[in-house]
Amino acid sequence: MPALIVGTQLLGEPRYPSLKGIMAARSKEVVTRSLADLGLDAADIGGAAARTKVTGQQKPPARGATQVVRGTAEERQQRIQQQRSILDSISEEASSLQRGLGTRDRARLNDYLENIREIERRIQQVERRNSVQVTTPNAPLGVPDSFDEHVELMFDLAAAAWQADVTRVFTFMMSRELSQRTYPKIGVTEQHHSVSHHQNNAEKMAKMVVVNTYYITFFAKFLEKLKAAEDGGGSILDHSLLVYGAGMGDSNSHASDPLPIVMVGGGVGTGHRHLKVETRTPVGCLWSTVAARFGAPKMPTFGDGEGAIDGLF
Protein backbone atom coordinates (compact mmCIF):
# COMPACT_ATOMS: atom_id res chain seq x y z
CA MET A 1 0.00 0.00 0.00
CA PRO A 2 1.62 3.31 -1.01
CA ALA A 3 1.98 5.86 1.77
CA LEU A 4 3.12 9.48 2.06
CA ILE A 5 4.81 10.36 5.35
CA VAL A 6 5.05 14.05 6.17
CA GLY A 7 7.11 15.53 8.98
CA THR A 8 6.38 18.89 10.58
CA GLN A 9 8.73 21.36 12.16
CA LEU A 10 7.53 20.16 15.57
CA LEU A 11 9.62 17.01 15.05
CA GLY A 12 12.68 19.11 15.81
CA GLU A 13 11.28 20.46 19.07
CA PRO A 14 12.65 18.78 22.21
CA ARG A 15 10.13 17.10 24.51
CA TYR A 16 11.15 17.12 28.15
CA PRO A 17 9.89 14.55 30.67
CA SER A 18 7.72 15.81 33.50
CA LEU A 19 8.81 15.46 37.11
CA LYS A 20 5.96 12.99 37.62
CA GLY A 21 7.21 10.88 34.71
CA ILE A 22 10.81 10.94 35.95
CA MET A 23 9.82 9.77 39.43
CA ALA A 24 7.58 7.03 38.01
CA ALA A 25 10.36 5.82 35.70
CA ARG A 26 12.74 5.37 38.62
CA SER A 27 10.51 2.73 40.15
CA LYS A 28 10.00 0.78 36.92
CA GLU A 29 11.98 -2.36 36.21
CA VAL A 30 13.93 -2.34 32.95
CA VAL A 31 13.40 -5.70 31.22
CA THR A 32 15.69 -6.80 28.39
CA ARG A 33 14.34 -9.36 25.94
CA SER A 34 16.13 -11.15 23.13
CA LEU A 35 14.77 -11.93 19.66
CA ALA A 36 14.28 -15.54 20.79
CA ASP A 37 12.12 -14.36 23.68
CA LEU A 38 9.88 -12.67 21.13
CA GLY A 39 9.86 -15.65 18.80
CA LEU A 40 11.79 -13.81 16.09
CA ASP A 41 14.84 -14.53 13.98
CA ALA A 42 17.42 -12.04 12.77
CA ALA A 43 16.36 -12.75 9.19
CA ASP A 44 12.80 -11.71 10.03
CA ILE A 45 13.62 -8.13 10.96
CA GLY A 46 15.51 -5.17 9.51
CA GLY A 47 15.49 -3.65 6.06
CA ALA A 48 16.01 -6.94 4.21
CA ALA A 49 12.79 -8.44 5.57
CA ALA A 50 10.73 -5.27 5.44
CA ARG A 51 7.49 -5.44 3.52
CA THR A 52 7.62 -1.74 2.81
CA LYS A 53 10.22 0.10 0.78
CA VAL A 54 11.22 3.75 0.71
CA THR A 55 10.83 4.90 -2.89
CA GLY A 56 12.08 8.44 -2.33
CA GLN A 57 12.56 11.37 0.00
CA GLN A 58 11.79 14.99 -0.63
CA LYS A 59 12.94 17.82 1.60
CA PRO A 60 11.04 21.12 1.75
CA PRO A 61 12.65 24.11 0.00
CA ALA A 62 15.46 25.52 2.11
CA ARG A 63 14.68 28.81 3.84
CA GLY A 64 17.21 31.58 4.19
CA ALA A 65 17.33 31.38 7.99
CA THR A 66 17.56 27.58 8.10
CA GLN A 67 20.82 26.06 9.30
CA VAL A 68 21.42 22.31 9.28
CA VAL A 69 23.66 21.42 12.22
CA ARG A 70 26.01 18.52 11.47
CA GLY A 71 29.02 16.91 13.12
CA THR A 72 29.80 15.52 16.53
CA ALA A 73 29.09 17.38 19.76
CA GLU A 74 32.76 18.37 19.97
CA GLU A 75 32.74 19.71 16.40
CA ARG A 76 29.57 21.71 17.02
CA GLN A 77 31.00 23.17 20.21
CA GLN A 78 34.17 24.19 18.36
CA ARG A 79 32.05 25.84 15.67
CA ILE A 80 30.11 27.75 18.33
CA GLN A 81 33.37 28.99 19.82
CA GLN A 82 34.54 30.21 16.42
CA GLN A 83 31.24 31.97 15.65
CA ARG A 84 30.34 33.14 19.13
CA SER A 85 30.15 36.84 18.27
CA ILE A 86 27.21 37.99 16.17
CA LEU A 87 28.93 41.31 15.49
CA ASP A 88 32.14 39.68 14.23
CA SER A 89 30.12 37.70 11.71
CA ILE A 90 28.45 40.82 10.28
CA SER A 91 31.27 43.34 10.65
CA GLU A 92 31.63 43.94 6.90
CA GLU A 93 27.87 44.37 6.40
CA ALA A 94 27.66 46.74 9.38
CA SER A 95 30.54 48.86 8.09
CA SER A 96 28.95 49.05 4.64
CA LEU A 97 25.62 50.06 6.14
CA GLN A 98 27.20 52.76 8.29
CA ARG A 99 28.81 54.43 5.28
CA GLY A 100 25.41 54.97 3.71
CA LEU A 101 23.73 56.46 6.79
CA GLY A 102 23.35 60.02 7.96
CA THR A 103 24.90 61.27 11.17
CA ARG A 104 21.85 60.64 13.37
CA ASP A 105 21.10 57.17 11.99
CA ARG A 106 24.78 56.23 12.21
CA ALA A 107 24.76 57.15 15.90
CA ARG A 108 21.63 55.03 16.47
CA LEU A 109 23.25 52.05 14.74
CA ASN A 110 26.42 52.45 16.79
CA ASP A 111 24.38 52.51 20.01
CA TYR A 112 22.56 49.34 18.99
CA LEU A 113 25.78 47.51 18.06
CA GLU A 114 27.38 48.56 21.34
CA ASN A 115 24.37 47.17 23.24
CA ILE A 116 24.70 43.84 21.44
CA ARG A 117 28.45 43.73 22.17
CA GLU A 118 27.77 44.39 25.85
CA ILE A 119 25.17 41.58 25.99
CA GLU A 120 27.63 39.21 24.29
CA ARG A 121 30.33 40.16 26.78
CA ARG A 122 28.06 39.42 29.73
CA ILE A 123 26.98 36.06 28.30
CA GLN A 124 30.63 35.11 27.70
CA GLN A 125 31.50 36.03 31.28
CA VAL A 126 28.76 33.70 32.54
CA GLU A 127 30.02 30.88 30.27
CA ARG A 128 33.58 31.30 31.56
CA ARG A 129 32.40 31.18 35.17
CA ASN A 130 30.28 28.10 34.53
CA SER A 131 33.13 26.30 32.78
CA VAL A 132 35.18 26.24 35.99
CA GLN A 133 32.35 25.70 38.47
CA VAL A 134 30.62 22.48 39.42
CA THR A 135 26.94 22.69 38.41
CA THR A 136 24.02 20.33 38.82
CA PRO A 137 23.58 17.94 35.84
CA ASN A 138 20.41 19.56 34.48
CA ALA A 139 21.41 23.20 35.00
CA PRO A 140 21.01 25.16 31.73
CA LEU A 141 24.35 26.28 30.27
CA GLY A 142 24.95 30.00 30.55
CA VAL A 143 22.41 30.95 33.23
CA PRO A 144 23.97 33.52 35.59
CA ASP A 145 24.28 32.61 39.25
CA SER A 146 23.05 36.08 40.21
CA PHE A 147 19.28 36.47 39.97
CA ASP A 148 19.66 40.22 39.35
CA GLU A 149 22.09 39.60 36.52
CA HIS A 150 19.87 36.95 34.97
CA VAL A 151 16.72 39.12 34.98
CA GLU A 152 18.52 42.20 33.64
CA LEU A 153 20.17 40.14 30.90
CA MET A 154 16.80 38.73 29.81
CA PHE A 155 15.26 42.21 29.65
CA ASP A 156 18.26 43.53 27.70
CA LEU A 157 17.92 40.69 25.18
CA ALA A 158 14.23 41.50 24.77
CA ALA A 159 15.01 45.19 24.23
CA ALA A 160 17.66 44.35 21.63
CA ALA A 161 15.26 41.99 19.83
CA TRP A 162 12.57 44.68 19.69
CA GLN A 163 15.04 47.30 18.51
CA ALA A 164 16.19 45.06 15.65
CA ASP A 165 12.59 44.00 14.87
CA VAL A 166 13.58 40.35 15.42
CA THR A 167 10.29 39.96 17.29
CA ARG A 168 7.40 42.18 18.24
CA VAL A 169 5.94 40.10 21.05
CA PHE A 170 7.58 38.58 24.12
CA THR A 171 6.57 37.21 27.50
CA PHE A 172 8.80 36.93 30.54
CA MET A 173 7.82 35.18 33.79
CA MET A 174 10.17 36.60 36.40
CA SER A 175 9.11 34.26 39.21
CA ARG A 176 7.10 31.07 39.51
CA GLU A 177 4.36 29.96 41.83
CA LEU A 178 5.47 28.28 45.09
CA SER A 179 8.83 30.04 44.71
CA GLN A 180 11.28 29.24 47.51
CA ARG A 181 13.64 32.07 46.52
CA THR A 182 15.02 34.28 49.26
CA TYR A 183 16.26 37.85 48.84
CA PRO A 184 19.07 38.52 51.32
CA LYS A 185 20.29 41.40 49.13
CA ILE A 186 17.16 43.39 50.00
CA GLY A 187 16.86 42.10 53.54
CA VAL A 188 14.24 39.37 52.98
CA THR A 189 15.71 36.03 54.06
CA GLU A 190 12.37 34.23 54.36
CA GLN A 191 11.16 32.25 51.33
CA HIS A 192 9.01 34.15 48.85
CA HIS A 193 6.08 31.76 49.08
CA SER A 194 6.09 31.86 52.86
CA VAL A 195 6.10 35.66 52.88
CA SER A 196 3.25 35.77 50.35
CA HIS A 197 1.01 33.96 52.87
CA HIS A 198 1.37 36.83 55.31
CA GLN A 199 -1.87 36.12 57.28
CA ASN A 200 -2.24 39.91 57.61
CA ASN A 201 0.90 40.01 59.73
CA ALA A 202 2.27 43.55 59.45
CA GLU A 203 5.92 42.43 59.37
CA LYS A 204 5.33 39.90 56.60
CA MET A 205 3.22 42.36 54.62
CA ALA A 206 6.05 44.87 54.81
CA LYS A 207 8.43 42.22 53.45
CA MET A 208 6.01 41.53 50.62
CA VAL A 209 6.05 45.22 49.70
CA VAL A 210 9.85 45.13 49.58
CA VAL A 211 9.84 42.06 47.32
CA ASN A 212 7.23 43.52 44.94
CA THR A 213 9.16 46.79 44.76
CA TYR A 214 12.32 44.84 44.00
CA TYR A 215 10.69 43.08 41.05
CA ILE A 216 9.05 46.13 39.53
CA THR A 217 12.40 47.97 39.68
CA PHE A 218 13.69 45.58 36.99
CA PHE A 219 10.66 46.41 34.87
CA ALA A 220 11.24 50.15 35.37
CA LYS A 221 14.85 49.82 34.13
CA PHE A 222 13.57 47.98 31.07
CA LEU A 223 11.10 50.78 30.35
CA GLU A 224 13.89 53.35 30.60
CA LYS A 225 15.91 51.40 28.03
CA LEU A 226 12.95 51.30 25.64
CA LYS A 227 12.31 55.00 26.21
CA ALA A 228 15.91 55.81 25.27
CA ALA A 229 15.81 53.74 22.06
CA GLU A 230 14.74 55.88 19.11
CA ASP A 231 12.15 54.41 16.78
CA GLY A 232 10.73 56.45 13.92
CA GLY A 233 9.25 59.67 15.25
CA GLY A 234 9.56 58.60 18.88
CA SER A 235 10.91 55.78 20.99
CA ILE A 236 10.28 52.03 21.11
CA LEU A 237 8.28 52.66 24.29
CA ASP A 238 6.08 55.15 22.41
CA HIS A 239 5.22 52.43 19.90
CA SER A 240 4.74 49.56 22.35
CA LEU A 241 2.22 48.15 24.80
CA LEU A 242 3.61 46.37 27.86
CA VAL A 243 1.60 44.60 30.53
CA TYR A 244 2.99 43.92 34.02
CA GLY A 245 1.17 41.95 36.67
CA ALA A 246 0.65 38.64 38.45
CA GLY A 247 -1.90 35.89 38.74
CA MET A 248 -3.21 36.88 42.16
CA GLY A 249 -4.52 40.07 43.66
CA ASP A 250 -4.16 38.76 47.22
CA SER A 251 -1.54 36.04 47.57
CA ASN A 252 -2.52 35.36 51.17
CA SER A 253 -5.96 34.02 50.20
CA HIS A 254 -5.13 33.14 46.57
CA ALA A 255 -7.74 35.68 45.45
CA SER A 256 -7.58 36.71 41.79
CA ASP A 257 -10.05 39.58 42.15
CA PRO A 258 -9.41 42.43 42.15
CA LEU A 259 -6.30 41.78 40.05
CA PRO A 260 -3.94 44.77 39.70
CA ILE A 261 -2.41 45.08 36.23
CA VAL A 262 -0.17 47.85 34.90
CA MET A 263 -0.25 48.76 31.21
CA VAL A 264 2.55 50.98 29.89
CA GLY A 265 3.59 52.48 26.57
CA GLY A 266 2.20 54.54 23.74
CA GLY A 267 -0.05 51.64 22.76
CA VAL A 268 -2.18 52.31 25.84
CA GLY A 269 -3.51 55.51 24.29
CA THR A 270 -4.61 57.82 27.10
CA GLY A 271 -2.29 57.19 30.01
CA HIS A 272 -2.07 58.17 33.69
CA ARG A 273 -5.39 56.55 34.52
CA HIS A 274 -6.71 54.12 37.10
CA LEU A 275 -9.39 52.07 35.38
CA LYS A 276 -11.58 49.98 37.69
CA VAL A 277 -13.54 47.24 35.94
CA GLU A 278 -16.60 45.41 37.21
CA THR A 279 -16.10 42.91 40.02
CA ARG A 280 -15.06 39.40 38.90
CA THR A 281 -14.21 40.50 35.36
CA PRO A 282 -12.13 37.62 33.90
CA VAL A 283 -8.65 38.59 32.74
CA GLY A 284 -9.53 36.95 29.41
CA CYS A 285 -11.62 40.05 28.64
CA LEU A 286 -8.44 42.11 28.86
CA TRP A 287 -6.60 39.93 26.35
CA SER A 288 -9.56 40.01 23.94
CA THR A 289 -9.49 43.81 24.14
CA VAL A 290 -5.73 43.94 23.56
CA ALA A 291 -6.00 41.58 20.59
CA ALA A 292 -8.66 43.77 18.99
CA ARG A 293 -6.46 46.83 19.59
CA PHE A 294 -3.80 45.26 17.39
CA GLY A 295 -6.13 44.26 14.59
CA ALA A 296 -6.93 40.65 15.48
CA PRO A 297 -10.34 39.30 14.44
CA LYS A 298 -13.02 39.82 17.06
CA MET A 299 -13.01 37.08 19.69
CA PRO A 300 -16.34 36.59 21.50
CA THR A 301 -14.54 34.65 24.23
CA PHE A 302 -11.00 34.18 25.48
CA GLY A 303 -10.52 31.64 28.24
CA ASP A 304 -13.37 32.22 30.67
CA GLY A 305 -13.78 35.83 29.55
CA GLU A 306 -16.67 36.95 27.37
CA GLY A 307 -16.61 40.28 25.57
CA ALA A 308 -14.20 43.20 25.91
CA ILE A 309 -13.43 45.93 28.43
CA ASP A 310 -15.01 49.23 27.45
CA GLY A 311 -12.98 52.42 27.72
CA LEU A 312 -9.58 50.73 27.92
CA PHE A 313 -8.26 52.17 24.64
Explain what this protein looks like in three dimensions.
The chain has 313 residues and is mainly alpha-helical. The protein contains 9 helices and 6 strands. It has helices at residues 19-26, 73-82, 86-89, 91-99, 103-131, 147-163, 192-196, 202-228, 283-293, and strands spanning 230-231, 234-235, 242-245, 261-264, 301-302, 305-306. The strands form 3 sheets. It has a two-stranded antiparallel ribbon. Strands 3-4 form a two-stranded antiparallel sheet. A hairpin with a 2-residue loop joins strand 1 and strand 2 (234-235). Helix 5 packs antiparallel against helix 6 (147-163) and helix 6 packs parallel to helix 8. The longest helix has 29 residues, at 103-131. The termini are far apart. Residues 132-140 have low confidence and may be disordered.
Short description:
It is built from 9 helices and 6 strands, in the order ααααααααββββαββ. It has 313 residues and is mainly α.
